[in-house]
Amino acid sequence: xxxxxxxALVLGLAxxxxxxxxxxxxxxxLATGQASSVRLALLMLFQPAVSALLYCxxxxxxxxxxxxxxxxxxxxxxRLAAASDGxxxxxxxxxxxxxxxxxxxxxxxxxxxxPAVTAISVLGEGLVPRDIDAARQVAVRFDPxxxxxxxLNLTPPPTAAAGARFMVGGxxxxxxxxxxxxxxxxxRVTDRDVADPKGHFLLAGTARTAGAVNFTLRVRKDKRxxxxxxxxxxxxxxxxxxLLILAGAPGPEVKYLRRWASDAGFDVTTQMSAGGGMAxxxxxxxxxxxxxxxxxxxxxxxxxxxxxxAPLIAAVRGGMGLVLRAGGAIDGATRSQWQALGFxxxxxxxxxxxxxxxxxxxxxxxxxxxxxxxxxxxxxxxPEDMAPDVSRLGxxxxxxxxxxxxxxxxxxxxxxxxxxGAGRVALFTGLDSYALTLTGRRDLYAxxxxxxxxxxxxxxxxxxxxxxxxxxGERMTLCDIGRDAQVNNADGAQTELVPxxxxxxxxxxxxGWHMLRVKNxxxxxxxxxxxxxxxxxxxxxxxxxxxxxxxxxxxxxVAVKADMPGLAWPFWLAWLMASGLLWWLERSRIxxxxxxxxxxxxxxx
Length: 605
Hints:
This protein is of the alpha/beta class.
């Protein structure tokens, strides 16, 4: 027996006893002439009425007759939605102004206003992250509209070192053949590409000086601007990595490699064997495990590798990065030793031709090489018509644990790396890459070696950038913070975060760079304007809404939504009024007949 049945039984018995009492009084009052049928009828009527109102106040009846479905208007909803008949129309803040709709600050509020709702139909581009949790309580129907042409996905670089190259990738929607340009803060085009048939693109830029900068990504189709967006780049200025270059003999590769590394910000030490126990280069260093531990990365050719295998591997296990390169075709012993590091090779061996990518346009090449000087004018760096004589080993590095890091224009792997202990070791199969610098392809030469060294160099501690795209007005979740965490906003204001389980919520109000301070650590993040990257935002919302629509809500949750109890206070008010009226009627003399003076009738109830 439930509590409702027990209370109903008690109230029923009380009502029955009250009616029996009234009937007995009326029977005795007939003898004295005080009985009144009208008074008895009123008292008999009020007894069950008061009991029923008390029961309804304790257990309000379930609400019925309300709408069981809603239409939810989101961003991109047609203004003709109000003209169609159907469930009530709810306008979320992202929806356009549609006449006849009911505005709601979020989906949860709309569901509280309509407690009988068990299903919703989402119109437009989909629910924003704010409303996804509320949508899981009901059944969701969602037919997403097609996406407009634009930027579907954008991946800015996490960080970039000053003077180094960085890559920006993404995906476009719409017709193929769109042109994508990356523009530096000075307004110059640093790279241009045509998206492939699937919409993918990859662009390169150069980070000049340390700090937070904004590049611009521009999408054009038939000379018409399709979309434009900011690409935030955090350029770090850390301590100069220590680079050791070891070669079995002097050669032009070491000369130009040293020159490039010095210009790229490395602290370079060179050691070359001249035969007969003689060595050329910088001051001698101890080539043992302790001496090599002082360096962050080393570039070693196949001849120097042969006599330094043990100390080099020990240094790599301690965290040093190692790039192995070949001066020509390698013998079977060297091949076996490199395979013992965990690499696998495919190919006939020997020397094979290398496919170079097409040289950039002259304007883009000038932007990449930067401003010239008296010693190296800018024109000297421009590509020549003659292709450089660059080849590669006839062996393609790979392996289950190897990560490809570099490819030529034909898709053949030129470099791969794998982890060994706390460090990384990489193989570079290009031969005579210095020829690129002699034929105006310094940008490609820098790209190759910067990619190889970045993949294996011992990481340095520095400030980092929080990955991901954020928009103005949307909640961000910042994790791994303490009670002293605060955000420096783009306008200079400070916002203190209240962490819960190590994470805090933040609603950015201004577009631009923000800084999260956690103790002595700085974490930067960039906030896009409210209307930036609309296609990317719409794709995110439609994907999240589609995932919710595929998940059927819990049956018990839907039952609770359909059987919500009504309001109790009207029944309490009615019970109080009826009880007061009953009390007054029992004690008043309305409807009583006056008895004779000799009568000894008992008083009425």
